[in-house]
Amino acid sequence: MTPTDLTAAQARYEAEVTRQWAAHPADGAHDLGHLRRVWKQAQLIAMDEACDLQVLLPAAMFHDLVNLPKSHPDRARASTLSAEAACHFLRADGFPEGKLSAVGHAIAAHSFSAGITAQTAEARVLQDADRLEALGAIGIARMFHVAGAMGGGLFDATDPMALHRPLDDRAFALDHIEVKLLKIAQTMQTATGRAIAAERAEWMLSFRGRLLREID
């Protein structure tokens, strides 16, 4: 696909996401801005990977099409449901039938909670691009936003580093760095993803150190 073709397709895909999200508005951590950043990051990573951008673009645009809250009992199935909904739209949109399964797999495998192994270059690139959104400054911003939406606090004022209590990222946003985000940095599938993740994880630890100094 030419750059013009990709731009036109992205516009159609964003319009469909907006239409489907209208009934169930996305939260601030999963919005069009998130989708655009994931696509931009995916293109950067794909420069060093043998990827089909015609597959990667819809996978990036539709990976959160079914966006269930983290507390939802079907949360682990959200990526699979997104893949099914995306393929249904793409088929009607005239997308090549032979590439639909690749799009569906990339979407289904991007999710950390789904536990699906990425089997293709596009799936590995999308997984890395999406997980980089959980790291660095944007990761910190999204972490506190989601925690607030779920009724959690910023941190445990008496024991912010959980030295004398179990980690609980449902109750305290800061705990999420240790519970999940640093682990995500170790799951990167591509060399570019690993390099970016390492830098962002280091920044997050620096942020946490600064926060601890300010509240001590």
Number of strands: 0
Order of helices and strands: HHHHHHHHH
Largest sheet: none
Radius of gyration: 18 Å
Distance between the termini: 55 Å
Q: Looking at the structure, what is the overall shape?
A: globular
Q: What's the average pLDDT?
A: 91
- Give the low-pLDDT segments: none
- How large a portion of the residues is in β-strands, by DSSP E? under 5%
Structural class: mainly alpha
Give me the number of helical elements: 9
Helix content: 55-70%
Description:
The structure is a single chain. The chain starts with a helix and ends with a helix. The chain is mostly helical and 216 residues long. Helix 4 runs antiparallel to helix 5, helix 6 (121-132) packs parallel to helix 9 (191-215) and helix 7 (136-149) packs across helix 9 (191-215). The chain is built from nine helices and no strands.
Annotation keywords:
216 residues, mainly alpha, 9 helices, 62% helix, globular
Summarize the topology.
Blueprint: H1 3-21, H2 32-46, H3 53-62, H4 78-92, H5 97-109, H6 121-132, H7 136-149, H8 175-184, H9 191-215
How do you describe this structure in short?
With 216 residues, the protein is mainly alpha-helical.
